[in-house]
């Protein structure tokens, strides 16, 4: 079931008579609720510990059904495969020492841009036919993936991190954790390790067996106006708050000069003269790269919004947010770290719910770059 569907499904665990999963679709978010019957009437006991045998049986049911999101029930911690998922997301260790977190941390040692690359990968995945890891699929003689789309070719990175994590997990917990979930968790960890906020990543996604090169070629671009971006986000069920908050991802990472060459000779949207001069000196060739945020280039903070207030937004799609009456108020609001971090985490959760595959849809890929 895709979460965009408007329905309510009820699944009763025939192995564990006292447990009922309710998959409730509302506002594009499918939530899974565990209700225990017989232990204390019909009271929801999401914070209490299930008997060990119940934990095993509920976990088996999850593996069969593939519900999303999978709630973090304390009583499930003793199940081996449940521990695999916990190890991936770091849920049971205050987000420290997780499999993905360690891989992202190691990647940052050699590439300070790794976190930004992983966050961008997550966006490019979810915005094209949903958060299904379609962006990871390689081309074959009979299959066209999304890696060669104009917004992705020679610019999207972080695949080595995802592939490394997946290879390790297939040894420890085969056919348990999807590539789509790994991408979502890696994006979160890239933000956290750069000083940004944390949030509990919803898991339970399955991987696609298809990709869409045409849809990937229509991702929001660096020269888009605020109005164009708003329409694209609305088409995905995301609002203006989500647009401006998620654009804050440009607070770290780099961009090629050819993505903003038009900004160096145009005053619409405006650009600070000193900033323009600096960029002209840095962009000797179109393939040269510069920091998206010249102030704190490897830190996830609010400097991006301060830059926009000073007409120092690198891309047209960035600076137009400060010029448009539809978005300028939010640019000012998000110069507050608490306001930005709060909205960013909410928007990342909404983004992570787009087009999720569940149940018998898709698969859990053995290798992220190809269909089983």
TrEMBL record:
Its cofactor is heme b; Ca(2+). The record marks 120 as: Transition state stabilizer. Ca(2+) 2 binds at residues 251, 293, 296, 301. Binds 1 heme b (iron(II)-protoporphyrin IX) group per subunit. It is an enzyme of class 1 (oxidoreductase). Its main location: secreted. The keyword rRNA processing does not apply. Belongs to the peroxidase family. Classical plant (class III) peroxidase subfamily. This is Peroxidase. It comes from Riccia fluitans.
């Amino acid at each position: 079931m895709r979460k965009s569907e408007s329905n309510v499904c009820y699944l009763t665990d025939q192995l564990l008579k006292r447990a009922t999963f309710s998959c409730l679709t509302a506002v594009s978010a499918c939530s899974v609720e565990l209700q225990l019957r017989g232990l204390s009437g019909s009271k929801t006991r999401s914070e209490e510990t299930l008997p060990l045998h119940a934990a095993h049986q509920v976990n088996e049911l999850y593996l069969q059904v593939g519900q999303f999101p999978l709630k973090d029930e304390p009583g499930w911690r003793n199940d081996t495969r449940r521990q695999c998922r916990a190890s991936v997301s770091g849920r049971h260790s205050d987000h420290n020492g997780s499999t993905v977190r360690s891989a992202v941390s190691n990647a940052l040692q050699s590439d300070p841009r790794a976190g930004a690359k992983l966050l961008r990968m997550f966006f490019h995945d979810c915005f094209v036919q949903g958060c299904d890891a379609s962006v990871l699929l390689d081309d074959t003689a009979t299959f066209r993936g999304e890696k060669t789309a104009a917004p992705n070719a020679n610019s999207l990175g972080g695949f080595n991190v995802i592939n490394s994590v997946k290879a390790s997990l297939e040894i420890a917990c085969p056919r348990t954790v999807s590539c789509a979930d790994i991408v979502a968790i890696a994006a979160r960890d890239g933000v956290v390790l750069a000083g940004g906020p944390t949030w509990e990543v919803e898991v339970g996604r399955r991987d696609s067996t298809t990709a869409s090169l045409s849809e990937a070629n229509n991702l929001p671009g660096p020269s888009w106006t605020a109005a164009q971006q708003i329409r694209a986000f609305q088409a995905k069920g995301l609002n203006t708050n989500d647009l401006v908050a998620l654009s804050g991802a440009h607070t770290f990472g780099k961009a090629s000069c050819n993505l903003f060459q038009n900004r160096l000779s145009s005053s619409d949207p405006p650009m600070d003269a000193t900033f323009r001069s600096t960029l002209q000196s840095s962009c000797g060739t179109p393939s040269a790269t510069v920091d998206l945020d010249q102030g704190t280039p490897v830190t996830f903070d609010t400097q991006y919004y301060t830059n926009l207030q000073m007409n120092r937004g690198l891309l047209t799609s960035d600076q137009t947010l400060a010029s448009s009456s539809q978005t300028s108020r939010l640019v000012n609001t998000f110069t507050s770290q608490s306001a930005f971090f709060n909205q960013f985490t909410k928007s990342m959760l909404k983004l992570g719910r787009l087009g999720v595959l569940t149940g018998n849809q898709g698969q859990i890929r053995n290798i992220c770059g190809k269909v089983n």
